[in-house]
Amino acid sequence: MEHDDDLLKLEKQGLPALPPAVRTEYVDATGKTSHIWFSVFGSGPPVVLLHGGMGNSGNWAHLVPELIKGGYSIIAIDSRGHGRSSWNGHPFHYTLMASDVRRVLDHLKIPKAVFVGWSDGADIGVILADESPERVRGLFFFACNVDSSGTKPFEMTARVERVLAYHRQQYAELSPAPADFDKIFQAVQAMQSNEPNYTPEQLARIDVPVTVCVGEHEEFIAREHLEYLSNALPDATFELLPDVGHFAPWQRPEAFNDAVIAFLGRLEKRCG
């Protein structure tokens, strides 16, 4: 796959379309005032993909085909208020988003899965591993903070501008409320500024296999924070992806995909 380190290709061409789905549906979110969109691809052991803030399931366009080839069933979920999923206007909370994921799993009758989370999706994965460890076979945690000390000062670079423009375009095309991008953006920022707030003692109880991964040039999260996270979790390893930042799945998808697939392979050997 071609490199797109500055995301110029993303700006000009966007991302490839996801492959044909096995099924695509909505489920009622917790409280039944929002509706959560999901698609299922491939067949095999279940892997749930959780995208980042302001994104959607299409953000996994480079990863999904590789997981299908690897013999996995992929469940890609649009978080509430993102992509095709609706929003009831209430404040966002990672715990609510985690409960939405459980509703999708219940609907599909999936008792346990591996989770791959990018940014906000990684925090949703941590909450699932904390609240429902019996449902989490493993977590690939990419590029997010678990308390407020882990973030870097925000800098609006040309690369970040390209990503926001792409998110805005995608939101207008997919959302049931296409004019609400700025409202959603503010609500997501409010959540990110206050959540999550895991202490070392709380992290120590999350005893599921985790790979904590970050790009060498991560823009938003301090590498030291992710090293701390990998040390605080009892069953975690740390992985650094060279030459990429927060948008590694788009910048160098082959390297990101290889890291995810290697994690899945380690789980297979370990858990059978």
The rounded Rg comes to: 17 Å
The CATH architecture comes to: 3-Layer(aba) Sandwich
Order of helices and strands: HEEEHEHEHEHHHEHEHH
Q: Major sheet: order of its strands?
A: 1-2-4-3-5-6-7-8
Main structural class? alpha/beta
**Overall pLDDT, averaged?**
97
Pfam families: Abhydrolase_1
Protein name: Alpha/beta hydrolase
Keywords: Hydrolase
GO molecular function, one term: monoacylglycerol lipase activity
Description:
With 272 residues, the protein is an alpha/beta fold. The chain has one domain: Alpha/Beta hydrolase fold, catalytic domain (Rossmann fold, 3-Layer(aba) Sandwich), CATH 3.40.50. It has an eight-stranded mixed sheet with strand order 1-2-4-3-5-6-7-8, sandwiched between helices. Helix 3 crosses helix 4. The longest helix is centred in the last third of the chain and has 19 residues. It is globular, with a radius of gyration of 17 Å. The two termini are 30 Å apart. Pfam families: Abhydrolase_1. InterPro entries: AB_hydrolase_1, AB_hydrolase_fold, AB_hydrolase_sf. Keywords: Hydrolase. This is Alpha/beta hydrolase. GO terms for molecular function: monoacylglycerol lipase activity.
Please summarize what this structure is.
This protein is of the alpha/beta class and 272 residues long.
Write the layout of secondary structure elements.
Elements (H helix, E strand, L loop, with lengths): L7 H6 L9 E6 L6 E7 L4 E5 L13 H6 L3 E5 L16 H15 L4 E6 L1 H12 L4 E7 L15 H17 L6 H14 L5 H4 L6 E6 L7 H10 L3 E6 L6 H4 L1 H19 L1
Parallel strand pairs: 3-4, 3-5, 5-6, 6-7, 7-8
Antiparallel strand pairs: 1-2, 2-4
Helix pairs in contact: 3-4
Keywords: Hydrolase
Protein name: Alpha/beta hydrolase
InterPro entries: AB_hydrolase_1, AB_hydrolase_fold, AB_hydrolase_sf
